[in-house]
Amino acid sequence: xxxxxxxxxxxxxxxxxxxxxxxxxxxxxxxxxxxxxxxxxxxxxxxxxxxxxxxxxxxxxxxxxxxxxxxxxxxxxxxxxxxxxxxxxxxxxxxxxxxxxxxxxxxxxxxxxxxxxxxxxxxxxxxxxxxxxxxxxxxxxxxxxxxxxxxxxxxxxxxxxxxxxxxxxxxxxxxxxxxxxxxxxxxxxxxxxxxxxxxxxxxxxxxxxxxxxxxxxxxxxxxxxxxxxxxxxxxxxxxxxxxxxxxxxxxxxxxxxxxxxxxxxxxxxxxxxxxxxxxxxxxxxxxxxxxxxxxxxxxxxxxxxxxxxxxxxxxxxxxxxxxxxxxxxxxxxxxxxxxxxxxxxxxxxxxxxxxxxxxxxxxxxxxxxxxxxxxxxxxxxxxxxxxxxxxxxxxxxxxxxxxxxxxxxxxxxxxxxxxxxxxxxxxxxxxxxxxxxxxxxxxxxxxxxxxxxxxxxxxxxxxxxxxxxxxxxxxxxxxxxxxxxxxxxxxxxxxxxxxxxxx
Length: 503
Ligand code: SIN
Hints:
This protein is an alpha/beta fold. The chain folds into three domains: 2-195 and 341-392, 3-Layer(bba) Sandwich (FAD/NAD(P)-binding domain), CATH 3.50.50.60; 233-337, Flavocytochrome C3, Chain A, domain 1; 408-502, Up-down Bundle (Methane Monooxygenase Hydroxylase, Chain G, domain 1). It is built from 14 helices and 21 strands. A five-stranded parallel beta sheet has the order 7-3-2-11-18, with helices on one face. Strands 19-17-12-20-21 form a five-stranded mixed beta sheet, covered by helices on one side. Helix 1 runs parallel beside helix 11, helix 12 packs antiparallel against helix 13 and helix 13 packs antiparallel against helix 14. The longest helix has 21 residues, at 79-99. The two termini are 41 Å apart. The site of succinic acid has 10 residues, from strand 16.
C-alpha cells in the first residue's frame, strides 16, 4: 500500500458541512480532508433545505431553544451538550454571515426566521427559501479551495482505521483516482462521514450515506451510542425517485397541511400540534394514512399557492420533475429515512473514547438529539461541535511513519444494496418488533456479498438492527410494537466485542 506524506497529523474523513467547517476552523494548521466524492458535490449537507435553528430572534433565547431541544429528544438529550449547542449557535450563524452566507432577510434587514415542528418560536434561518445547505456548502467549499492548509483528496474512500496499541493512527483509503490503496497516517483522525439513510429503501439522504464511519469506529474499538434512533422525515416526495426528494418541514411551518387519499386532514386527531407535532409522530401519522387509505399528501395550495416557485424553489423543481404542480395539486408523500441520532460516542469537544479518534456532525453522538432530533438542529450541531473539535484537537507535528499493513479489502464494484435496504425499511423502520429484527439480523449475517461498500454498510446495518432489538421499549424515533411502553431513560452503548449494553 502506498503511504501518503503526512500533513501535520490531522486527517478528516468526510467533506460535508461538519468536516469542511472543522478543516476551515483548524486553518492555518494543516489537515488532510478525504472525501469519497468531489469537494462540495455531495453529502446530505448540500441537500439540506430546512436551514439552521438558532436563538437569534429578539423574542427568543438559548434557554427556550434548549427547552424545545430537550422536549423533542424524548428523555435522552444530554443537557450539557444541548446547552452548548443552543448557547454557541448564534455565534456560528455570525461566522457564516461573515463568510458571506446570504441568509434570507425581512424588509427591515433583520434575519427572516421560519418555524418548524416542535419549535416554540420562529427560529430557523434560511437561504433562498429552501437552499440553505447548498448555499452554505458552496460558500465553505470556495473558502476551503482558497485555504492552503487544507489538502483535499477527492474520490478517496476510507475503509479501515489504522491502529497501534489501541490508538487510531490514520486511515487506510481506496484512492479511486489512482486505483490504489493508500495509507494516510495521522496523529488525530476525525470522522465526519454523515449518516445512515442509504441503508434504507426510502431515504432523503445521498445513497452513499451508509454509516461507514460507524463501522470504522466500531472496528477500531470505539463506543457507539443510541444507534437504534433513526429519524424518518414525514414528507419525502413520493414520485419514485431514489433517493426521495424532500418536501421541507418549512412548508408545514407556513401552513401546508397533510391529507389522506380522501382529502381528509388526519393530523389534528393524532396530536394537538397537528402538522407541527414532533417529527416521529407526524411520520407515523403519514405511514398510517398510507396504510389505511392508500396514500398521503402534502397540500400547500392554500397556504403557499402561487408563491411556491419563489419561496421553495428546490421543492418546486422536484415536484415539477415528478409531473406535479404543487400550486394546484397536493404533493404525494411517504416517510423517508432522514437522520441518524445515534453515532460515535463523543464528549462535547468531539473526542471519541479511544485515543486519536474524533467524530463530528451526524456521525457523532454528542447527545444533543436524544431519541428524536429537533428540526434544523443538525447543521447547527455540525458547526458548533466542528468548531469545538477544531479548538480542542492537538496541534501535533507531522507523523513520520507512513507505513501501514496491506489493505484487507481490495477495491471491488459497489455492492447491490437493494435487498439490504428493503429489509432495513421493512424490519428496522418506523415500526419494529422482535420477530422482524431477528429475521433481519439473520438475513444480514447470511448476506455474503463480499464487496467494499457492502462490507462496511452491512456492518453498520447490523449494528443499528442489534441496538433496535436490544431496546425493548418505545421512545422517540424508536417504536417497538411489541414493547409500546417507555422504561427509565437509558442510552444504548455498542462496543466490540461486547455487543449492546445500556447505561
Ligand atoms: C426539513 O427541511 O424539513 C429538514 C430539516 C431538518 O431535517 O432539520
